Automatic annotation (TrEMBL):
Protein name from the UniProt record: Clathrin adaptor, mu subunit
GO cellular component terms listed in the entry, alphabetical order: AP-1 adaptor complex; cytosol; endosome
Residue stretches making up the MHD domain: 162-417
Keyword Ribonucleoprotein: no
Predominant localisation class: membrane
Compartment list: Cytoplasmic vesicle, Clathrin-coated vesicle membrane
A Gene Ontology biological process term: retrograde transport, endosome to Golgi
Pfam families, sorted: Adap_comp_sub (PF00928), Clat_adaptor_s (PF01217)
Database matches in PROSITE patterns: CLAT_ADAPTOR_M_2, MHD
Organism: Rhizoclosmatium globosum
Length: 436
């Protein structure tokens, strides 16, 4: 991978920060970028993150909040690696400034230039781990301090971890359902996140119930099922050659919190929290909702901090609610009902009823009605069935490590489409009886 220049621009294409690494592309070439992006957006719903021009200049970019992070190159470079570097830039900036937006770029341009110089040399990526960068590039009260000598990790083979670390303790679903209840799209996006506080330079090995491993070795999963993971992405600390040879996940971990790997399972998923909606419209004067929510996961598990967001017409008023569990609120800024259930046990079913007045006679377009969205978190539970079979920590000093594993499932893009409103019928009784 070879980069010629990096730019940070606002949404209008104005350059906020730039760094020319090789000098083989005129910096004025950035003026072509925004017209090309606008042209691509007009032609495609999802424009390509790579745009090439007739004069051989390649623009590779990502958008984050109100910023464009842009790389330019003339070489036939690896596009995926360049885009990964831009994402790493985002991660490092967020570690330093907490929020990555136009204002934080303007307030911290001195340290940003310092980071750009340390993270890349003559167009080649160097140190991209924020924890290592923070050891010798610090900023306190808008004053930049840089040590005379960078830490050994910058020149070590293990560039993501400093030597000599010592600790007293050593520890180591997207879903779319249509109005008829059919699952249109489902997938599991998973990640293994680690929090390591280990002394020295420990060697860690992680074993999963990996289907490919069991098939290769001729073994069968001892407990539960084996899982076939797709689109696996590892942290740079993982020894890829060993994983390719025998599926062993072996690594020297960074210090602190990091994401070891991410994966995807393109599989049919049963909705963990199922919502059934009945909508009744009364001649344009009022509208009523009945929402049934059921936990379709094991009874011994419990979903925490469940939020069910039900869209309502933008001109609805005079809200009234009744439920047998949780708290219901009207959120006019969202044009939605927000039903919060702090603890939702598996197998349980809860009901919520809502009543709104409709001051204007206005026909709602069902095709433009937003879906019901659900937010939740289920600890000690995995939808995919992935399991950590073992976690071994080996260090030359021979200290004892105490690994601890926790499973958790959260919502991703979790949507259930609303049914059409039923006119002039009752929902288990009259409105006066329910909300009297």
């Amino acid at each position: 991978m070879v980069l010629s220049a990096v730019f940070i621009l606002d949404l209008k294409g104005k350059v906020l920060i730039s760094r020319n690494y090789r000098g083989d592309i005129p910096m004025s070439a950035v003026d072509k970028f925004m017209p090309l992006v606008m042209e691509a957006e007009e032609e495609e719903q999802t424009p390509s993150p790579v745009i090439s021009t007739e004069d051989g200049i390649n623009f590779l970019y990502i958008r984050y909040n109100n910023l464009y992070l842009l790389a330019m190159t003339k070489k036939n470079s690896n596009a995926a690696t360049i885009l990964l570097f831009l994402h790493k830039l985002c991660e490092v900036f967020k570690e330093y400034f907490k929020e990555l937006e136009e204002e934080s770029i303007r307030d911290n341009f001195v340290i940003i230039y310092e980071l750009l110089d340390e993270m890349m040399d003559f167009g080649y990526p160097q140190t991209t781990e924020s924890k290592i960068l923070q050891e010798y590039i610090t900023q306190e009260s808008y004053k930049l301090e840089s040590q005379a000598r960078p830490p050994m990790a910058v020149t070590n083979a293990v560039s993501w971890r400093s030597e000599g670390l010592k600790y007293r303790k050593n520890e180591s679903v997207n879903l779319l359902v249509n109005a008829n209840g059919n699952v249109l799209r489902s997938e599991i996006l998973g990640a293994i996140k680690m929090k390591c506080y280990l002394s020295g330079m420990p060697d860690v090995r992680l074993g999963l119930n990996d289907k490919v491993l069991f098939e290769t070795t001729g073994r069968s999963a001892t407990k539960g099922k084996a899982v076939e993971m797709e689109d696996i992405k590892f942290h740079q600390c993982v020894r890829l050659s060993r994983f390719e040879n025998d599926r062993t996940i072996s690594f020297i971990p960074p210090d602190g919190e990091f994401e070891l790997m991410s994966y995807r399972l393109n599989t049919q998923v049963k909705p963990l929290i199922w919502c059934e909606a009945v909508v009744e419209s009364h001649s344009g004067s009022r509208i009523e909702y009945m929402i049934k929510a059921k936990g379709q996961f094991k009874r011994r598990s419990t979903a925490n901090n469940v939020e069910i967001i039900i869209p309502v017409p933008e001109d609805a008023d005079s809200p009234k609610f009744k439920t047998n569990s949780g708290l219901v609120q009207y959120a006019p800024e969202l044009n939605a009902i927000v039903w919060k259930i702090k603890s939702f046990p598996g197998g349980k079913e809860f009901v919520m009823r809502a009543h709104f007045g409709l001051p204007s006679v206005k026909t709602e377009d069902p095709d433009k009605r937003p879906p019901i969205s659900v937010k939740f978190e289920i600890p000690y539970f995995t939808t995919s069935g992935i399991q950590v079979r073992y976690l071994k920590v080996v260090d030359k000093s021979g200290y004892q490590a105490f690994p601890w594993v926790r499973y958790i499932t959260q919502n991703g893009d979790y949507f259930l489409r609303m049914p059409d409103a039923v006119k002039n019928t009752n929902l288990n009784g009259s409105s006066d009886h329910v909300f009297g």
